[in-house]
Structure formats: structure tokens, C-alpha cells
Amino acid sequence: MSKIHDIAAKYQITEATVRTLLEGLQTTSGFQVQFNSAELGGMGQWQSGMVMIGDIFNDGLKAKVAALCAELASFVREYQATQPEETEKKDATVAAPIKTIPATFSGSQNGTKYAYYAPQNVLQIEEEDKIARYSTEGLTLWGVQQAQDGTGKKLKFTHAGGTITVDDLKPAVE
User: Fold this and answer.
1) d(Cα 131, Cα 14) in Å, to the nearest integer?
2) pLDDT exceeds 80 at position 71
């Protein structure tokens, strides 16, 4: 029996749903996942300590999704911790790996694109066709929110110690 099979049986969901969550969690190093699954209450998202599902009044399902995602996230982090780092990533400049590896998380809000690359400790911001890269050394970013600064353009990034903006970060060394 596989780990996916065991987890699917434990939470009484299909293996396909477990695989979908696992793939999503792998892209964020186990920190968050978005999904759209009838088995999990429709569209939803999970981040440690926060779960939202389309079936908003189903507290039992929310608890099930929270436990399932927490277990899968732990599995992803343990697995990734045992994998050897690729020396190419450490020795290359910031620009090179970003073109070839998937972002830990990425998105856009109000014309500002962002991509976070946890293994390289880089946050990339693209605004008005200009790309800026910032060092996140010593921080593990978990997500993004829009700051209420009047323009709606300033982004805040969440981490274990709270939130930061790009103004709090140093430019990444190219």
C-alpha cells in the first residue's frame, strides 16, 4: 500500500484528490494549497491555521480538510528535507534558476506580478515591465496580501514573524 492510498482511506476521499493536494503543496514547500474538489467542499484553500472551503457552514468538513492538508504538508516538508540540494542552484546567479524552476508561489494583484523562490531566497516583483529581485535570506514567506495604502498596489508578504513589504528587503545579488 502506498502513502497516498493510506491517506485517502484514512480521510475517506479518492486517491486523485490526495494527489492533487500533494502536488499543490509540493509547489509551495508544504505551506499552502488551493483546490477545487467536490469531496473537499468545492473551491478552497489551506494554510497552516487557516482553511476556507466553499461549503462554508460545514465545520466537520473544514476540520477534515485542515487535518488532511496538515498531514500532507508535513509529509512534503519531511520529504523535501531529505532531498539533496542541487548545487547548480546554489552556484548560479539569481536570474538563471528563476527561468528554469517553478516558483514556490506566484500570482498577481492590480498589475503587479510576484513570484517567490524559497530555495533561492528570492522574491521577484514585476511592475510596469520592470523586474526587481529581493533577497529573502532568513525568511520563509508563506503568502501575500494587499496592503491598504490607498493605491491598492503595495503588497505585503506573510512570514513567521508577521508581514513585510519589498521596502523591508534588500535587493538580491545577481
Assistant:
1) 41
2) yes
